[in-house]
Design a protein that fits this description.
CATH superfamily of the largest domain: Polyketide synthase dehydratase
Distance between the termini: 50 Å
Helix content: 10-25%
CATH topology of the largest domain: Thiol Ester Dehydrase, Chain A
Number of strands: 34
CATH architecture of the largest domain: Roll
Strand content: 25-35%
Shape: elongated
């Protein structure tokens, strides 16, 4: 048992203070505790709104043009939030900061939107989310001209009881009573008209310019209409909100109409849903609170109350303002489509715009917390006693994120794997990583794993890329006629059992513990290696990786064989230089048998050194994998290992362990500072350094890490390691730093 009571914040990834006992005796239990429920922080949907999919769209007309109704934005916002957060049966929540920035005139049967979802980070508040919609322009781009922005917050508030006389007193303050047909004819016809699909009120009482009270039967309305396939709560809220217009002065509405002006809703500050709106009867009370004559805008509140006097919803600071016909774009009304039986049936398979669950997601960001003890593979992956998150950990996080929205996804190919920045994990601390996922097709996803810098006084609080790659879920067909014969083992010069192999090749500067020990027997000759795995039954429990397909995990766990393809004198040279090797990248992993590799009794891995004629700071190995019959079942192309010196790891660790840096001196000029520090590192004078000199040709990896450390300590800017690979000159580096400082440095 290990007890950790220190408060730490480490560079690169966000960690919180922990005071708990970490029990590593039960691996599966630990994994379920930490990593079973990653949460979605961000997502992007690409949504097409067919105007004939919901009858309310064509029945919402301003100046004889179809204008998209705000109920669509409310519905999409609530549906997306429920879908991503997993609160399908949500009853208590709030809409806040509801803004409709521009009316969208419908001139075609299909309108395309980008919908963004983001979790808001507010301290001491319930979970909040922001959903925004952007219309696609004529060139096919989403030019970030926003249509709507809506915040949603989950509430734990109990229903509020009020005086049973509330509704009665409100009705008593009115002096006019309208039946439904008169209400909609007078306030919602003519230059701003809504059709029968919007009609929810049975009766309206009003006091001109002061208050309006409406009676509706939401449950009956939903029974008759099925909410047109939309979220019933958001639709009811929108339809009831239309009552507010009837509280406005009748004469002013009439006079503005003669000037080709109308009142339209612009949003509201807060809408608190304290109970379901699907009541047998519901009263709504709309009260005007303020009028701004300069822009002809009315503001007020609307309260929805059950007959027993219980508030079920309250909207505050609703805004209706005047708009003229000249301010409205005009559009010809698209021809109405024939709604075929096939089309009607397709609507039954999901949401009218969002389709089946998660099907319209283009991008998402998933947050996951891990510890050094989350997987045995982390604590068993040590270089100079520093635990590094292994590549399989990143891959598992990315796979978890994809399966959050595509539970059946099982990739057969991973390409362009690259670890851009190694991550060290301290025992006892918990870290937050974010998996950024982008879908290019139903079968193809790209991912990036990001870590956070949260040091005190650091100027650039940002997530930096640690690992990336591309997944494919489609049957892979090999164009190779490769087979493997056990008879070829007679040509290999050396043979090792499991303990001998890992002690000899993975026991010094880079240690791989028991959770990596799957290869039972290893055969070796110059530039080649063969290993065999025979027992698969405990590999998931042993590694702690439970979400990946067995085939991929077994293939990955053969990578330690790569150490045996390089000559002994090369390995001795690395060890004498106090250096070690870390996995850097791989061109591709391919699983040809999409039924998985568990069905086989044996898996044979054959590795070959690719760059034997040019061994420098990297070596590259290709692997092919065969079953017991000798059939090719998987392969790895271009697995690259990189030599890293102990000094480099110590510089990284020093940066991690430093939880606070001194307040930066904002008077420091960045360009002269860089020239001075680079000159000292290179041992040359400042005069020899021109602004456009190529840094890549002058500095090795150790020098780069030293410069990064100096920038961090003196300028309070933490640059991701992968950024240095793209920076060519001192000028470019200075620009990168000043940009990240948000203008605080020059």
């Amino acid at each position: 048992m290990i007890t950790q009571n220190l408060k730490k914040q480490h560079c690169w990834y966000k960690s919180s203070s922990i005071s708990e006992k970490v029990d590593t005796s039960n691996v599966v239990k630990k994994i379920n505790k930490i990593n079973v429920a990653p949460s979605i922080n961000k997502a992007t949907y690409l949504v097409s709104v067919d105007i004939d999919s919901v009858p309310t769209i064509r029945e919402h007309r301003i100046f004889d043009s179809i204008v998209l109704t705000g109920s669509i934005a409310l519905d999409i916002a609530l549906t997306v939030t429920k879908e991503l957060v997993g609160r399908e049966n949500l009853k208590t929540f709030s809409f806040s900061n509801v803004v409709f920035l521009k009316p969208i005139v419908v001139s075609s049967n299909l309108i395309n939107f980008k919908v963004t979802f983001e979790e808001l980070d507010f301290v001491n508040q319930d979970k909040s989310y922001r959903i925004q919609m952007f219309e696609q322009n004529e060139e096919g781009y989403f030019d970030d001209v926003m249509y709507s922005s809506i915040d949603i917050q989950f509430l734990k508030t109990d229903p509020v009881e009020i005086d049973e006389s509330f509704v009665g007193n409100a009705i008593d303050s009115t002096n006019e009573e309208l039946v439904a047909s008169d209400f909609y004819s007078e306030f919602w016809s003519g230059k701003f008209s809504i059709g029968k699909p919007f009609h929810i009120f049975d009766k309206v009482w009003r006091n001109d310019g002061v208050i309006a009270v409406g009676l509706c039967r939401p449950k009956d309305f939903i029974t008759r209409t099925n909410a047109y396939g939309l979220d019933p709560e958001s639709l009811i809220a929108y339809l009831i909100g239309l009552l507010f217009k009837s509280a406005l002065p009748r004469d002013q509405i009439h006079d503005l109409s003669l000037e080709n002006k109308i009142f339209i809703g612009a949003g509201y500050d807060f809408g608190m849903f304290l109970d379901s709106l699907l009541q047998e009867e519901l009263y709504a009370v709309a009260e005007i609170k303020k009028f701004e004559e300069s822009n002809l805008q009315y503001n007020g509140d609307l309260t929805m109350v059950s007959p027993s006097g219980r508030i079920v919803c309250k909207m505050t600071n609703i805004a209706f303002h005047a708009i003229s016909k000249t301010e409205m774009p005009q559009g010809a009304i698209p021809k109405e489509k024939d709604v075929t039986k096939e089309y009607s049936a397709s609507r039954l398979n999901g949401h009218p715009f969002l389709g089946e669950k998660y099907s319209k997601i283009k991008d998402l960001v998933v947050a996951t917390e891990i510890e050094r003890d989350t997987y045995p593979l982390i604590g068993d992956h040590l270089t100079f006693n520093y635990a590094l998150l292994p590549a399989i950990g990143y891959i598992n996080l990315a796979s978890q994120a994809i399966r959050k929205v595509n539970p059946k996804y099982k990739f057969t190919k991973l390409e362009n794997l690259e670890i851009t920045q190694p991550l060290m994990l301290h025992k006892g601390d918990r870290y937050e990583l974010r998996s950024s996922i982008s879908k290019s097709s139903p079968n193809d996803y790209s991912y990036g794993i990001y870590a956070y810098s949260c040091k005190k006084n650091i100027l650039n609080k940002e997530w930096s890329l640690s690992c990336k790659g591309d997944f494919t879920d489609a049957k892979q067909i090999s164009d190779e006629k490769s087979v493997f014969s056990k008879d070829s083992l007679s040509t290999f010069e050396k043979q090792y059992d499991t303990k001998e192999f890992f002690k000899l090749f993975w026991g010094d500067n880079f240690f791989l513990g028991d959770s990596y020990h799957f290869v039972q027997t290893v055969w070796r000759k110059p530039y080649e290696v063969v290993g065999v795995i025979k027992h698969f039954e405990k590999y998931k429990e042993k590694t702690g990786i439970t979400d990946l397909s067995g085939g991929f995990l077994q293939v990955y766990m053969s990578l330690p064989l790569a150490m045996a393809v390089v000559p002994d004198d090369y390995l001795d040279k690395v060890q004498r230089a106090e250096a070690t090797c870390i996995a850097k990248s791989a061109e591709r992993f391919i699983i040809y048998d999409d039924n998985g590799l568990d069905q086989y009794n044996e898996l044979w891995a054959h590795g070959v050194l690719v760059n034997k004629d040019k061994l420098d700071d990297n070596w590259v190995t290709d692997f092919k994998f065969y079953n017991e019959r000798g059939d090719l079942v998987a392969k790895i192309d271009g697995a690259k290992f990189h030599i890293m010196k102990k000094e480099a790891l110590e510089i990284l660790k020093e940066s991690m362990d430093q939880t606070e840096i001194k307040t930066p001196d904002k008077k420091i000029e960045v360009l002269p500072f860089l020239k001075k520090e680079i000159g000292e590192i290179l041992g040359i004078s400042v005069e020899q350094l021109t602004d456009d000199i190529n840094l890549g040709g002058l500095m090795d990896s150790i020098m780069t890490l030293k410069l990064r450390s100096k920038i961090e300590k003196n300028l309070a800017i933490l640059l991701p390691l992968n950024n240095f690979a793209n920076i060519k000159s001192i000028n470019e580096l200075a620009y990168e730093i000043t940009t990240r400082s948000n203008g605080l440095l020059e």
